[in-house]
Design brief:
By secondary structure, this protein is mostly helical. It is built from 18 helices and 4 strands. The N and C termini lie far apart (72 Å).
């Protein structure tokens, strides 16, 4: 009896400590998250938002772990593109809300892919939407388009929380809501009684903020990936008509994993209408790809072998290219380098001739 009573008391204390905490106590990351979306810190004490967090944080913690696992390779790519565009890395939580990092998901309104583009918006940003190729499902290309779209919305509204809500319901609805409310203050725009914005959008911004607070509270930094881990994805070229299952076999991957990264190609096969297409693979599979993928070349290439090179202190691309008798442009192309800057201890793949390859192997 005493043991049962003690257990009940412990349960009640634990329950009180969980539900009695404020947002600022439960999520120390709240100030950073709110500031990144241009929201005043006082919003953490908004009663509607507090109620939303209390009702949904357990569910969203479970969803966060699911999305994080599903986006293992996509998250670093999304945040890297955001950082390169000089945008907040917290916008990487947007595709979590939009698609749960399912690259092939489609909504009843015909929005599709990682960023849930509808056909008209996709066309505006030059994304191909066709039977054999739907670039809304290409995570790399769609992310680049989403960044352009978000930048345009931010230029129009001047605050990130407004840009995010416009991403969800359209810029016309947000502009109209601001006119009706006579202010762009978040708590007024999404007031549950005034209903200036659609119900979905009022919940959308709260879901994004909560998910971001959960992720940042767990100390996950999606973008600043240790170069030694080589996380993320990279795009490589394959011949038209290539079956993705064959590439997955070469990369020691499950076909569903590779097809999921390339949902833009229907039935797991790239079209035959062009000689070459790009596909997305995990960065950690890059060496395997170049070692095992041997398409019939358009012209003989003497540098059909590859060696790995660890960048040492003060090494430049010019010195490395001279060492292996290749070109800077070829090294950059193979390794998908955006510029000529190199990080010490990073890994490069160098195209070499058969003779150079045998020479390197014999001296190891």
């Amino acid at each position: 009896m005493k043991r049962a009573l003690l257990s009940l008391i412990c349960f009640l204390l634990a329950t009180h400590s969980l539900y009695g905490m404020t947002i600022t106590q439960k999520y120390p990351s709240y100030a950073y998250v709110l500031s990144e979306f241009d929201i005043d810190e006082s919003y953490a004490y908004d009663q509607d938002f507090e109620n939303f967090v209390e009702d949904h944080d357990s569910q969203f913690k479970r969803l966060y772990r699911i999305f994080q696992n599903r986006g293992e390779f996509l998250l670093p790519m999304v945040q890297r593109q955001l950082i390169e565009a000089e945008l907040s890395d917290l916008l990487a939580y947007l595709p979590m809300i939009e698609s749960g990092f399912d690259t092939d998901i489609e909504s009843p309104k015909q929005a599709k892919g990682l960023w849930q583009f509808i056909p008209s918006t996709a066309k505006e940003y030059n994304l191909t939407v066709a039977y054999t190729l739907d670039e809304r499902c290409d995570p790399v290309t769609a992310t680049a388009a989403a960044i352009l779209h978000l930048q345009r919305l931010y230029r129009k509204f001047g605050k990130w929380y407004l840009a995010v809500m416009a991403y969800n319901c359209g810029e016309g609805r947000v502009a109209e809501a601001i006119r009706e409310a006579g202010t762009d203050e978040l708590s007024i725009l999404i007031d549950e009684r005034a209903k200036y914005l659609p119900k979905e959008t009022r919940a959308y911004i709260k879901r994004l903020l909560l998910l971001a607070m959960i992720g940042e509270n767990e100390g996950i930094d999606f973008g600043l990936i240790d170069s030694a881990q080589q996380k993320g994805v990279v795009q490589v070229e394959v011949k038209g008509g290539t079956d993705l299952k064959d590439i997955a076999l070469l990369l020691n991957m499950e076909p569903t994993g590779l097809i999921g990264l390339n949902s833009q190609y229907k039935k797991g096969r790239v079209p035959v209408s062009s000689e070459r297409y790009t596909i997305t693979i995990p960065y950690e599979k890059l060496i395997l790809f170049y070692l095992n993928y041997h398409p019939v070349p358009d012209a003989p290439d003497p540098r059909d072998h590859f060696v790995s090179h660890i960048v040492s202190a003060d090494e430049t691309l010019k010195l490395i290219a001279e060492k292996y008798h290749t070109s800077i442009s070829e090294i950059r192309r193979i390794n998908h380098l955006q510029n000529t800057n190199l990080e010490q201890e990073s890994l490069l793949i160098i195209p070499v001739t058969r003779e150079q390859f045998e020479s390197v192997v014999n001296h190891q």
